[in-house]
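QUALITY CONTROL LOG
STEP: pairwise intake check
CHECKER ROLE: data steward
CRITERIA: each record must contain a sequence immediately followed by its structure tokens, with no blank fields

ENTRY 1 OF 2
RESULT FIELD BELOW
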Amino acid sequence: MPPISTPPEIRAIHIKGRSPIAWMASSPDLQFDPSRIPKEAVAQVPEGYTIRPLNVNDYDKGYLELLSQLTTIGTISKRKFAERFDLLRERNESKYCIVIEDLGRGIIVGAGSVIIEPKFVHECGMVGHIEDIVVDNSARGKNLGKLIINALTLVAKHSGAYKVILSCAEKNVGFYEKCGLKAKEVTMANYL
């Protein structure tokens, strides 16, 4: 039997005897270069899942349905999704959208993003704003949420951020404390 050849745009990473995690290096379908996700975050991925940048094809893998478990999405066509994806890809040094895919089902079961904000304070430091953390109801209890927070925190750290911050519902404070965050100050909003 001839060996299976892997297309040049895909490389597999084997971690502790687990199933390979496929990355598409420098693919125009990915929101950012997957090497920006630190290896220590990738090493935490359970068997049967992969963590990677958002892919333009995730529209067909239930990404918006997953986000609708978090908040209102509205009607977003595939074209509108692709246009927004292109905008995010152009700004890939300031916003990183990470997803967790269930490889067996071929669907997105976890997601989150971090926005890197340049500041004047802290000697022109950077702050990571963690946003839109969600894990599918069917995949809860597997520490995927904690994995997403850790991955986004490491992306922010490797981008030069001196801290990460987020806003959450009061009912979720306990979860975020388990992820290493601490309650500080108050978030306020003015919906326009």
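ENTRY 2 OF 2
RESULT FIELD BELOW
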Amino acid sequence: MKEMSNKMKASPGLFRVTRQVCKAEWAYELSFVWDSKENYGAWKESDLQKEVHSIYQAALEDCGIKEDDVYSGARVVDDF
């Protein structure tokens, strides 16, 4: 998580990184939030994203988790 987060700080518009863990179910959630759809889109197409994704895949492999078994998706976030 730290290695990924530190590298992702170079992504324009990234303004929040969170980690949540449900100890009852050991559900582990990461959240990365960009300030605009455009900056998120630029991230998705960047070389940095490919580099960070390889770190993510290695971390999953180290834990014996297949990437297909992990849920991921883009969301809209509103802070009130």
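INTAKE CHECK: passed for both entries
DESCRIPTIVE NOTE, ENTRY 2: The first strand starts at residue 14 and ends at 22.
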